[in-house]
Design goal:
- The protein has about 375 residues and is mostly beta strands.
- The chain has two domains: about 200 residues, no CATH class; about 150 residues, Sandwich (Immunoglobulin-like).
- About 0% of the residues lie in helices and about 45% in strands.
- A six-stranded mixed sheet has the order 10-8-5-11-12-13, with no helix packed on it.
- It starts with 8 loop residues before the first strand and ends with a strand.
Length: about 375
């Protein structure tokens, strides 16, 4: 895991904005990413750090569009300076604007404000005149502008320092959205590819809750701590772990105020039966861990409460069992990169066969409520 030294900066505002930096220690594209935002007032966004950030580290966020033809930001909007507090920021930790300490917001011949007509967010170091881009997001009807069009308050070109599908995300007027952080990742590149895939983002009708609960950067060794789950009944959660070594695993969930251990009985080398805690809402955030404490969690939908009794997966077959009293709904199966595999409106029992091993997303819409459920084929 990388760490970086502090980077103090001074800011001078005028007709031209100048950022003077010293003792620079540059981050690289993808070290910081946006994982959720609300463009409706009040403006909010959450940044996830993929590296350790020591106290004093500085970077900048702007909603100014980038003009490739001029190799410059379009002024008229705003700039935010963030300074990491004395406690530091660990890899996998989110930074939430505007509530977290360390943010200073200023105008660039205008003011910082995210527009419901579309806008962009850029994270960078360097200077406003010569930015070193770390991440970019556009949520504009039509996406990134081609060079033939001039950026407006709501639109931007894609800077040459960022790459679509790796360090730049293109959405289309989602306005309130969050990345669906439900999978372990085998490496950083896999995480960035999924993060910058629009199909992996949840579009909210009103606002998303930030910071994004359960969203962290979990890089797991291939075939180690890969896991899936099934609800056996309202009180019991079955957890399956592949290629488990002899090391014991503890299971943690996010309680109302702090992480808590989930009470689990080990049934076999790769299977745990866990008692669900009381007084939970519809989502359970859970994480497997070999350390004494887990700090980040995976989201599990308690699907029984949303019309699906359970699903079973294994040996290339997915079986969905749906109560007869459930309102007719649609069920769609995607690969994690968004490719449609199967879709059907149905009741009763459904089987999809011939699936390759790996992770999939089951999207269930029942009574106009959509749930995206992560599953794993073995």
């Amino acid at each position: 895991m990388f760490s970086f030294f502090a980077r103090p900066c001074a800011i001078v505002l005028g007709c031209c904005l100048s950022i003077s930096a010293f003792r620079a220690q540059a981050l690289i594209p993808g070290d910081l990413v946006v994982v959720g935002y609300n463009f409706q007032d009040p403006d909010e966004f959450s940044i996830l750090s993929l590296v350790d950030l020591p106290a004093g580290t500085q970077f900048f966020i702007t909603d100014c569009g980038w003009n490739t033809n001029a190799s410059a930001f379009r002024s008229g909007e705003g700039l935010i300076t963030y300074t990491v507090p004395f406690t530091g920021i660990g890899a996998g930790q989110q930074i939430h604007y505007p509530n977290d300490p360390g943010f200073v917001t200023q105008g660039v011949n205008g003011f910082f404000g995210l527009s419901v007509a579309g806008d962009q967010l850029f994270i960078f170091q360097g200077t406003f005149q010569a930015p070193q881009f770390l991440f970019g997001l556009t949520d504009y009807n039509g996406g990134w502008l081609s060079a033939a069009f001039t950026p407006t308050n709501q639109s931007s070109h894609l800077p040459s320092g960022l790459a679509a599908g790796q360090t730049a995300l293109e959405l289309d007027l989602f306005l309130q959205a969050q990345f669906e952080c439900v999978f372990p990742f085998s490496n950083r590149q896999e995480f960035l590819v999924r993060l910058t895939d629009a199909t992996q983002w949840i579009k909210a009708p009103d606002r998303v809750q930030l910071p994004v609960m359960g969203c962290g950067f979990d890089v797991l060794t291939e075939n180690t701590l890969q896991w899936s789950y099934r609800l056996e009944n309202d009180q019991k959660l079955l957890l399956f772990v592949s290629a488990l070594t002899s090391q014991e695993i503890s299971w943690w969930y996010y309680g109302p105020t702090a992480p808590r251990t989930l009470t689990c009985e080990r049934r076999a080398i790769d299977q745990y039966a866990c008692d669900l805690p009381d007084a939970l809402d519809s989502n359970l955030f859970i994480r497997p861990c070999r350390a004494e404490k887990c700090e980040r969690y995976k989201k599990i939908d308690r699907i029984r409460e949303n019309g699906i009794i359970w699903y079973q997966s294994g040996a290339g077959e997915l079986k969905i069992i749906i109560p007869a009293t459930t309102t007719l709904g649609s069920y769609t199966l995607y690969t994690t990169d968004g490719h449609l595999i199967w879709k059907e409106e149905c009741l009763g029992e459904v089987e999809v066969q011939g699936l390759n091993p790996g992770f999939y997303i089951l999207e269930a819409e029942v009574a106009h409520v959509v749930r995206r459920i992560p599953i794993r084929m073995i």
